[in-house]
Write a structure and sequence with these properties.
The chain has a domain of about 110 residues: 7,8-Dihydro-6-hydroxymethylpterin-pyrophosphokinase HPPK (Alpha-Beta Plaits, 2-Layer Sandwich). The radius of gyration is 15 Å and the shape is globular. It has four helices and eight strands; from the N terminus they run βαβββαβββααβ. It starts with a strand and ends in a 13-residue tail after the last strand. It is α+β, with helices and mostly antiparallel strands. α3 crosses α4. A hairpin with a 2-residue loop joins β6 and β7. Strands 1, 2, 3, 4, 5 and 8 form a six-stranded antiparallel sheet that branches.
């Protein structure tokens, strides 16, 4: 069984799409380890603020199968493909880590490069997997977050009205 971590982001109908994604993820992969929900400004384009979080779970699925499930969930939330890299999203689900594996090719990058470059990914990941080490860098995610230059990349924990059993993991 592998431990997977995924990022979740939305800036279009944010609360609805995150709730839908969490329901589907819980149905596929429960129990989930859930970070707080963070709000961040759009990066790389002018757009509404995003809500972001990171979820961890154990799975027997291959990384490719997990990614197919994530794409199906995005499609259910009317995700448009072929958009600009930095643009508004109904839902963006990315497989960040799959155990300590390193995979590059066929459109898959694990660990995701965004972990080391975006506060809205690293902050929530450090919250729920702080002692885990980056498979390439070798530093713990808590240390990476403590050393991360947050200037101009602020993220804020925001209250989120979760249905029962869907909230952050204490």
């Amino acid at each position: 069984m592998a431990r997977a971590y995924i990022s979740i982001g939305s800036n279009i109908d944010r609360e609805r799409n995150i709730r839908l994604a969490m329901g589907r993820l819980r149905a596929e992969y429960a129990p989930l380890i859930v970070s707080s929900v963070y709000e961040s400004d759009a990066v790389g384009f002018q757009g509404g603020a995003f809500l972001n979080l990171v979820v961890g779970f154990d799975s027997l699925d291959s990384p490719e199968a997990v990614i197919r499930t994530l794409r199906a969930i995005e499609d259910q939330c009317n995700r448009t493909r072929g958009e600009e890299r930095y643009s508004s999203r109904t839902l963006d689900l990315d497989l960040l880590l799959y155990d300590d594996r390193e995979i590059k090719g066929n459109g898959i990058e694990i660990p995701r490069d965004e972990i080391l470059h975006h506060a809205f990914v690293l902050g929530p990941l450090a919250e729920i997997a702080g002692e885990r080490r980056h498979p390439i860098d070798g530093r713990a995610f808590a240390r990476l977050w403590a050393e991360f230059d947050k200037t101009g990349r602020e993220i804020r924990i925001v209250p989120f009205d979760w249905p029962p059993d869907d909230g952050p993991t204490p």
